[in-house]
Design goal:
The structure is a single chain. By secondary structure, the chain is mostly helical. The protein has a domain of 140 residues. It is built from 17 helices and 4 strands. The strands form 2 sheets. A two-stranded antiparallel ribbon has the order 1-4. A two-stranded antiparallel ribbon has the order 2-3. Strand 2 and strand 3 form a beta hairpin. It starts with a helix and ends with a helix.
């Protein structure tokens, strides 16, 4: 589950400028970080500082290891995604190799995913186990082509910041280079939708707050629809997109930092804005930032 305060703290913690505040962010918002585990949102762990991700997942290890199925997977629904998210979190924190070598991670999912070529099965094979045969390599080109074919002439996917970010990240997971022309066109779309001034919205009208340098298109409800369609694991809420567009903005910042663009003045200003909002209103939730105005 992704909510505004945590979503905003993640790019700050990833940035060179604000990474030094990571521990103080964690101490101030412990409940938000612990919610990552409580809601089994393991995909978020590979976006947090390694030390914090390790701190969160270590108490969960006995439960995770005991709930792995004999086919090496977790869960029945969305089994490929959830399995990848768990294994990727273990890999990211440096726990995977030790668990694998000492036999604590009893089952391997490789037999289960061997002849599966969906997005997450390919990631399990390539990113976790570094197992790529010719069929896997071909399947990655097919998945990549399917993503590229959905890109619009304006560089976006679905005409939203949210969808564009998600699809560029998927391309990167499929090992597309950062300087690929489609990635660059997508980034240009994102920067065209950097709002120097953005009104906070209550229900359908502005309520008085203006924030600077926020990434979102004008249609914030369409941004929510994109998230609901592409990232249901976020359990998105309209309020998180409509009030101040925190989630489209901050997931965009995560991507731009991953692309090595943190020193771009526009990215730096957007990070500064998130930091200012967090400090000024005691959080990034709609209830935080609207309270002084309503």
């Amino acid at each position: 589950m992704l909510r505004c305060t945590l979503s905003g703290l993640i790019p700050l913690m990833m940035s060179g400028k604000y990474a030094g505040y990571a521990e103080s962010f964690y101490e101030a918002e412990t409940q938000h970080f612990q919610a990552v585990i409580r809601h089994k949102s393991y995909y978020l762990l590979r976006r947090l500082p390694v030390s914090i991700s390790e701190r969160l997942i270590l108490p969960e290890l006995p439960s995770l290891l005991s709930s792995q199925k004999k086919n090496g997977m977790w869960k029945v629904k969305e089994t490929e995604r959830i399995t990848y998210d768990i294994l990727a979190a273990l890999k990211y924190t440096g726990l995977f190799d030790n668990l694998y070598s000492n036999g604590s991670l009893k089952y391997s999912p490789l037999d289960y995913v061997r002849d599966r070529y969906d997005f997450y099965s390919l990631l399990i094979k390539s990113k976790i186990y570094q197992k790529n045969n010719d069929k896997d390599i071909y399947a990655k080109t097919v998945v990549t082509a399917e993503i590229l074919n959905k890109q619009k002439d304006n560089g976006s996917w679905d005409d939203t910041v949210t969808s564009t970010v998600v699809n560029i990240e998927s391309l990167m997971d499929m090992d597309i280079e950062k300087d690929n022309s489609s990635v660059l066109r997508g980034v240009e779309f994102l920067f065209r939708n950097l709002n120097e001034k953005l009104d906070g919205i209550h229900t359908t009208a502005p309520y008085g707050l203006q924030a600077g340098n926020m990434f979102t298109t004008k249609d914030r409800i369409k941004e929510f629809t994109s998230a609901d369609k592409l990232k249901p694991e976020w359990i998105p809420r309209k309020l998180c997109f409509r009030t101040m567009a925190i989630i489209p903005d901050t997931v965009c910042l995560v991507l731009l930092i991953r692309l090595g663009m943190e020193n771009d003045k526009r990215v730096e200003s957007a990070l500064d804005n998130i930091y200012h909002l967090y400090n000024e209103y005691g959080g990034l939730c709609a209830s935080n930032i609207k309270q002084p105005f309503l």
